[in-house]
Amino acid sequence: MRRKLTHRGRERRRQLMEHGAALFAQRGYHPTSVADIVESIGVGKGVFYWYFSSKEELFVEILRAAHQDLRRRQRHAIGDEPDPIRRIELGIRASLDWFRDHRGDFTLFQFAASEDRFAPVLRSNEQAAVADTSRHIKDAIAEGRVADQDPEMVAQAIVGVVRQLTRTSVFERSEPVEQVADVAVAFCLRGLTG
To answer: Could you state, in order of their start, the residue ranges of all structural domains in the chain?
Structure first.
């Protein structure tokens, strides 16, 4: 449900999303209730339902907002870089940095992957990530720097490598992000450029 919000309304909505995300990441989606969320910021349930029709809608909005924030970080890191191979590297490094800084959001993505009702938003997020990466691969192919191959499949592989290394190396083993990024970049770019 979309309403035109005042500055104060946007701030309240942001608070609900922020507190909801923190509680979902800490306690889990199912054990966290709307009552828990509103209690955490000291408002009534009516305030929640003014902004969101359900806990599920809130969760979907949190997933979308997190992914938009990740894409902003990637675009900022890439900037006006003309070299498509360098853009891929910068995107990988920005992604790993973002996940390090947003561990709770990564936890929410992992949970959402286990629930069919959140599959559409995750698919949409992944399609955007693959399309962004694929664009750089197409540019590298056009420049003759990468062998002609299916850019979307290669982009899916890069997105998968980043996701897997985030889970295992950054979060489970607490490896330094810079070190993980070096491995991810070396592996992906060597695979791309031979």
So the answer is: 1-53, 62-193
Q: The domain 62-193 is classified under which CATH number: 3.90.79.10, 1.10.357.10, 3.40.50.1820, 3.40.50.11540?
A: 1.10.357.10
The DSSP H or E segment spanning 170 is: none
Tokens of 48: 């929640």
Q: What is the mean pLDDT of residues 167-174?
A: 95
Q: Is the pLDDT of residue 1 over 80?
A: no
Which fold would CATH assign to domain 1-53?
Answer: Arc Repressor Mutant, subunit A (1.10.10)
Rounded Cα distance, 132 and 145, in Å: 18
Per the structure block, which two tokens stand in for 16?
């609900």
Listed residue (52, 126, 128) closest to 118, CA to CA: 126
- At 138 the pLDDT is 97
**Cβ proximity of 113 and 31 under 8 Å:** no
Q: Do residues 63 and 12 make contact, with C-beta atoms less than 8 angstroms apart?
A: no
Q: Mean pLDDT over all residues of the chain?
A: 95
- 3-state percent breakdown (helix, strand, coil) of the chain, nearest 5: 80, 0, 20
pLDDT of residue 7: 87
The pTM is what?
Answer: 0.90
Q: Which two tokens stand for residue 160?
A: 């998968």
Could you give the percent of the chain with pLDDT greater than 90?
93
